[in-house]
Request: fold
Amino acid sequence: MSDVTRNNDGTNAEDDGDGMVDEIIGEFLIESHEALDQLDSDLVSLEDSATPETLASIFRTMHTIKGTCGFLGFGHLEGVTHAAENLLSLLRDGKIGVTPDVTTALLSTVDIVRAMLATIEHTGSDGDSSHEQLIAELEVLQDPAVSPKPKPPRVGDLLVERAGVRPEDVELAISEQALGDTRPIGEILIGHGVVSADEVAAALNTQSDPKATAAEATIRVDVRLLDELMNLVGELVLARNQIVQLAHGQDRRGDEADLTIPAQRLNLITTELQEGVMRTRMQPIGNVWNRFPRIVRDLARNCDKQVQVEMDGAGTELDKTIVEAIKDPLTHLVRNSVDHGIETPAARVAAGKSPDGTLSLRAFHEGGQVIIEIGDDGAGIDVQRVGAKAVERGLVEADALDTMSQRELLNLIFLPGFSTAEVVTNVSGRGVGMDVVKTNIERIGGALDVTTDAGVGTTFRIKIPLTLAIIPALVVGCGDHRFAIPQVSLLELVRIDRERISTEIEWIHGAPVHRLRGRLLPVVDLAGELGLDAEPLSERAVVNLVVLQADGQRFGLVVDRITDTQEIVVKPLGVQVNEVGIYAGATIMGDGRVALILDVLGLAHRCHVLSEDASRLDDTEIDGPSESDLDTVLIVDVGGGSRAAVALSTVARLEQLPRSAIESSSRGPVVQYRGDLLPLMSLAAATGLGTPMPVTHADEGVLEVVVSTGPDGQIGLVVERIIDIVEENISAGAKPSVDGVTFVAVVGGQVTDVVDVSALVGSTSGSTRAAVAAAAGH
Reply:
């Protein structure tokens, strides 16, 4: 089959390149979309600082697109980019200056070019419109003495381009506005029945989806990473051949071949290959953030506000699926901060602030997750007004407000239908948004929280997993069935023996609860919820409680067996099983059997753990600090009776490792642990606390090890013994005199040193390794 190329008249010409033209067009689309994303950011920055370098970069990008589309025969696209190139040439040469009208026209050009690229991808043509209005405006702007012509509403153009709305329908809507109709163009067209609300929303938020499908289906990978993966695949083939050879030898000899060493090697190679493949899917969050300066600029102009965007951590990487999933939630939060959070310049000056508001975006890794913060320095959220609006909209009862904490009142903004906007606009006021944002984030295993300070600002904090493909999970048993629980929702494990069940499992209004360190914990029996045969809780030999957290609410899940933790590969479920609402997927275990992955949030909703009654029960039964004020730490004895506290969020596992497994390396004492090397460090020796114990190889004895995670990896902290997990409000006390300790505080009624895990993990690199090894007795 021969390929086709496009002539300037829109007809197709035969080409014998056997796919070469289509391949060139595909590359052109991908590279053009990437260039347009950068153009958005560069054009917005022009208004603040029109540097020669930025202008030259913008000009080169537009020139490249123009030249390539001319070569491929996309005449209309070439005409638009040529007009923009002429304007940019005058800007670059300093013959005209950068004005808001010039920037707006160039940004409109980017939108039109992006729409034409989407048309090329889906139809093979750049469309029928030559966009004479835009080209005329770009030409007028080349003469600074002439005022630019007014342009029709952009949403109308987008609806004509993308939703198939007839131009005469748009003109009719404009005429109705001229006669006094105050509704936006989109609402008028919806009323006429010529366009859907979703199509209008897509047009209004076109900048939130700048890439076409072709660009989303590809990802650029560093060649060096591909070389590493190729080497690992070669090692994997060698290990496979060795195992196959041993297996054949076993068949011939009739004995059991020694597969231990090849199996260990295969495990290490597979782990490295898994990590490498996952790295190929990682993308910086800056790919999403790059569009926000443009969004903020457009929205700020519509709202008569002045907003600057600050970004920190744009290089923080996430799995591509996660990046795609958080685009819309992040966009909504950014728009919400500009529209609701930041005040007008006059209001800010009256409050003693700078007339320019600041929207800050921050991203970083923490505890195996990615934290994204969207903050503004606006007026903050009036929680009392939030409560009043919730009552006004019928979302809560007025009497309930009296029993709500500040945090509960603030969380009302996430209820469906909630809005504090007095006027409905195309940006806000419809009561659709924050609840959808929260749901979408929780759907990918994330969590959304908000903090506010009146007159200072508001910060939304998102916690999301690095990837959805492979996750660490706790494997549990219930009857003859096995289930996996994502570790991101796991807090701790509690075992209650038969003699303690009657005293430690209490019943309130017919529902079982467990008093965990003074706080009532709702108890959910997994077997009962799944309809499996099970004995009543009071008659069981032991009760295994898996303490989980969903949407800020803790509950204990009763299971029959707790097997192990392992990394599992997530497989999607069919629609029929998804509708059950308590399963997030499935995985295939090592023995070939399938285990369902529990959806902790869905399970909590089904068991009514997240109901208002459950929340009030948890808060009113105990006097003490609120949940947000509590710190959860692991208390250990570092030797000689000295106590130390390690933040539970940094603790991956608690292990008892045999001394015989300790080996020597340039990193000091290490053990082979879960397919990797785990550096060991005596916590007492590293911090100067208590009595250090030697971390050395010996034929007998075991070490109590706290496997902790920091930004630079994992480390095994050797301690004398594990004391307890404590949850209380810990205030910073005296500053320490040793490295590796954050501060000294009173925890559980005793003086305790709070350990800085990040510093200890970092100390295992570079020249410090030798000193640590010596201090550890190696």
Notes: The two ends are 70 Å apart (CA to CA). Residues 363 and 372 are 4 Å apart (CA to CA).
